[in-house]
Write a structure and sequence with these properties.
Layout lengths: L2 E8 L2 H12 L2 E4 L7 E4 L10 E5 L6 E7 L3 H10 L3 E9 L3 E7 L5 E7 L5
Parallel strand pairs: 1-4, 5-8
Antiparallel strand pairs: 1-5, 2-3, 3-4, 6-7, 7-8
Length: 121
């Protein structure tokens, strides 16, 4: 299971978008899905690295969340809870993409887990 995506969760999307586009030449485009979200392409797909997303938070502190690809999200959720982790945002559909949940590890670090499923809704 590998880290396959990162998210930048910020209060000012426009300012953040401009910063990363200008400094690192990242391409950032509005996602066509049902929620306010931007896709970040960090470089050529042939080069090492991962792409990410940009989302808006209103009252929380800005954060970076890495998302791990899993084959069976339900099994991984059980394992997280058995090993001392805590699910902080339960499994939910990202329509047309898959199933997503967020957890904190025993030290409090926040991660996402994603099971690909184009039929998720």
């Amino acid at each position: 299971m590998r880290v396959v995506h990162f998210e930048l969760n910020v209060r000012n999307v426009e300012k953040t978008k401009e910063f990363y586009e200008k400094v690192f030449k990242w391409k950032i485009e509005k996602w066509e899905g049902p929620m306010e979200y931007w896709l970040i392409m960090t470089g050529d797909e042939k080069d090492p690295g991962i792409d990410g997303g940009l989302g808006r938070v209103d009252s929380e502190s800005p954060s970076i969340v890495n998302t791990i690809d899993v084959k069976n999200i339900d099994e991984v959720i059980k394992e997280i809870e058995t090993r001392g982790g805590k699910i902080v945002n339960p499994k939910h559909a990202v329509p047309g993409v898959g199933w997503l949940a967020y957890f904190k590890d025993p030290e409090g670090l926040l991660f996402g887990i994603m099971q690909a499923d184009p039929n998720a809704s």
